[in-house]
Amino acid sequence: GEGLPRPEQTRIIVVANQKGGVGKTTTTVNLAASLALHGSRVLVVDLDPQGNASTALGIDHHADVPSIYDVLVESKPLSEVVQPVPDVEGLFCAPATIDLAGAEIELVSMVARESRLERAIQAYEQPLDYILIDCPPSLGLLTLNALVAGQEVLIPIQCEYYALEGLGQLLRNVDLVRGHLNRALHVSTILLTMYDGRTRLASQVAEEVRTHFGDEVLRTSIPRSVRISEAPSYGQTVLTYDPGSSGALSYLEAAREIALRGVGVSYDATHAPIGA
Ligand code: ADP
Ligand code: MG
Questions:
Q1: Distance 22 CA to ligand 1 centre (A)
Q2: Within a domain: residue 86?
Q3: CB atoms within 10 A of CB 187
Q4: What atom in ligand 1 is closest to the CA of residue 232?
Q5: Of 14, 81, 226, 250, whose CB neighbour count within 10 A is largest?
Q6: Sign of torsion, CA 47 181 167 110?
Q7: Which atom of ligand 1 is nearest to the CA of 229?
Q8: What is the ipTM for the molecules in this complex?
């Protein structure tokens, strides 16, 4: 794929929003595939017991597969659960199985319960440009592990009523983690998802989000697209399922924007696909 500057150090991006259905998983897998197609080495960590990111990447995650549960609860090295994603060079996935639903409770009594993912990532020796962590729709111990392990938080926001409701709680958690557990953590990126520019509501919400968050909001937004929602049932990202679709182009563009920001290069939207 088209080359983009690669970060000097691994960027660890936590995709979080405690609301369900806002596009966390869709964004995680499609951004990860886009970054890999741009030439980076990328690991997706599936931290949602539903395992939707694993499914969307075509990664086996039935109950017996070594998974992120074993890493968090059994201290298995991350390298023993990571699988290459078929069809996308440079893309890898640490899958989630249904076991992970119990981890939220099992972790409570464990030593250093909030930093188990961080330790596992620190011990992982394969070179990576990006790690994207797909969080469950809650602010429990799994999401806390992600916030302690990461440097950046990416918040997908769906352009609909109440889009900003509940975000205060996530932002307060980010502040708490930064204050006590992880000085590097910050909200680096807001991505507008399922954007329908034809509706006034969507453009009003987008306006509100841009006023509230300013420069953190990517200039690229992700359109509502049937192709994006179909791809997971084929175990594919939209980048391989329909590479020319508006959804694929917008995720490629969002990835370009994120990569350029990471090396301090200002983003030029001149070549962005129309509507992105
Ligand atoms: P979350 O992980 O935040 O719960 P998902 O990524 O699973 O959200 O998305 C919720 C639903 O919306 C899924 O069915 C997904 O296929 C669909 N979806 C996400 N983004 C888009 C989009 N841009 N266009 C159409 N459907 C989308
Ligand atoms: Mg999800």
A1: 6
A2: yes
A3: 19
A4: 16
A5: 14
A6: positive
A7: 16
A8: 0.99
Report which protein residue has its CA nearest ligand 1's atom 19.
23
Please give the number of the atom of ligand 1 that sits closest to the Cα of 17: 3
Q: Give me the mean pLDDT over the 245-250 stretch.
A: 98
Q: Is residue 248 one of the residues assigned to a domain?
A: yes
Helix ranges (H only) for the chain are 24-37, 52-56, 68-74, 100-106, 116-122, 141-149, 167-180, 200-213, 226-230, 238-241, 246-262
pLDDT score of 270 more than 80: no
Chain centroid, CA 222 distance in Å = 14
Judge contact between 42 and 35, C-beta under 8 A: yes
Q: Whose CA is nearest to atom 18 of ligand 1?
A: 229
Domains of the chain: total: 1
Q: What is the pLDDT of residues 108-132, one digit of tens each?
A: 999 899 999 999 999 999 999 999 9
Q: Which of 26, 54, 55 to mutate to test the pocket of ligand 1 (most atoms within 8 A of CB)?
A: 26
| pTM confidence score | 0.96
Q: Are 68 and 107 in contact (CB under 8 A)?
A: no
The answer to whether position 267 is within a domain reads: no
CATH number at residue 47: 3.40.50.300
Please tell me the predicted confidence (pLDDT) of residue 272. Answer: 58
Q: Note whether residue 220 is domain-resident.
A: yes
151 or 197: which leads in pLDDT: 151
Domain of residue 120: give its range.
Answer: 11-262
- For ligand 1, atom 9, the nearest C-alpha belongs to 23
